[in-house]
Amino acid sequence: MRQSCFLNYAYRKQLCSNALRPMGGFTFLGLLMIIAIMSIGLLVVSEAWSFARKREKEQELIYVGHQFRQAIKLYCTRGPRGSQIQIYPMYLEDMLKDPRYPNTRRYLRKIYTDPLTGSNEWGLLKNPNGSIYGVYSLSEDSTIKRDNFDLDDASFKDKQNYSDWKFIYIPTLAASGAASASSQNVSN
């Protein structure tokens, strides 16, 4: 019996010494390296995704800005008959339902949210009488796109912040010059 206890004790001691014996650590280091490489990969992927998302929001801002510009233009050019002065809207909501007419006239489907801020609040460019001739984003984030804009957005070139992109409607001098030339021809 004593010998079996001794063998039992020796067997247990060998098991414990094997468990406490330092392993090479290569498996642990390998696992750490794999985790580090995966973390770097995820960081690269998340940055690329973030960049792509910002570019999408930028394109959406340009689309929404064009919608506002077009709505302001339609509001001005489709004024009541007999009105020779182009009247700008006083509020963004005026483009949803033109208050100058008894029936509903819409120049804008809805007041779009700013894709960069997620808010319905826009910066408004106003004439001295308080009427709106343009909108801009309130986001101070830096732009990605700095060149190759459409002719209507040529003023956006080299702008640093989205708040510098002003979507405005001002009747062109060429159109007003052509109108005055045609009115002079009629009177002659």
What percent strand? 5-15%
How does the overall form come out from the CA principal axes? Answer: elongated
What's the alpha carbon Rg, rounded to whole Å? 34 Å
Going by helix content, strand content and strand pairing, the class is mainly alpha
Element string (H = helix, E = strand): HHEEEH
Strand order of the largest sheet: 1-2-3
What's the rounded overall pLDDT mean?
A: 81
End-to-end span in angstroms? Answer: 135 Å
**Helix proportion of residues, in percent?**
40-55%
Number of helices: 3
The residue ranges in which pLDDT falls below 50 over 5 or more consecutive positions are: 173-188
Reported for the largest beta sheet, the result is: 3 strands, antiparallel
Number of strands: 3
Describe this structure in a few short sentences:
The chain is mostly helical. It is built from three helices and three strands, in the order ααβββα. Strand 1 and strand 2 form a beta hairpin.
